[in-house]
Amino acid sequence: MKNKHAQTIYYGTLNHGNWTIYIAATDQGLCFVGSPNKAINKLQIWTDKNRPNARLIEDDEKVSNYVHQTIEYLHGKRKTFDIPLDLKGTSFQKAVWKELQNIPYGEVVSYSDIAEKIGRPNAVRAVGTANGANPVMMVVPCHRVISKSGSLTGFRGGLEMKKALLAMEESNKTRV
């Protein structure tokens, strides 16, 4: 009989200030960073939608390096991540997510900029949708994307979190 669980996803929590964030990874790499202070069912809903038949197992040890690097980032001590990622999405989403990783720490670009860089200048709204579908916010820095007018727009973690992340990066970008 074949195992009905195609994959195991390990998860744990990251606590930072007023934020509690679920972080999840497979044996291949980080696959999910949750929005602050959302219930575990948000991770279950994401898993059911994006990784059908996966089994969720709480295992702080398995996700400890991901949590550690994210906490270093949130404390302004890390500007880049060197952890494996396990991202599943369409080829368009993957192109957007790859380009997001090229945005330098402490800088912002527009959705139009991303659309241009991936060779799809008319796909600005689709870029926004792919940005919103990024399952590993902060690590793939979708918070560094703003509207062409310079205003902050949607962010899965909420606009307060987006403002906080951008302000933290701005104040730490000259730090070595």
How would you briefly describe this protein structure?
35% of the residues lie in helices and 17% in strands. The chain is of the alpha/beta class and 176 residues long.
Keyphrases for this structure?
176 residues, Double Stranded RNA Binding Domain, 2 domains, 4-stranded mixed sheet, two-stranded parallel sheet, 6 helices, 6 strands, cytoplasm
Q: Tell me what the CATH architecture of the largest domain is.
A: Orthogonal Bundle
Report the strand count: 6
The mean pLDDT is 91
Structural class: alpha/beta
Question: Could you say what the CATH topology of the largest domain is called?
Answer: Arc Repressor Mutant, subunit A
Task: Give the oligomer, counting copies of the same chain as homo and different chains as hetero.
Answer: single chain
> Number of helix segments?
6
How many separate domains make up the residues? Answer: 2
CATH class of the largest domain: Mainly Alpha
Binned strand content:
15-25%
Helix content: 25-40%
N-to-C CA distance? 54 Å
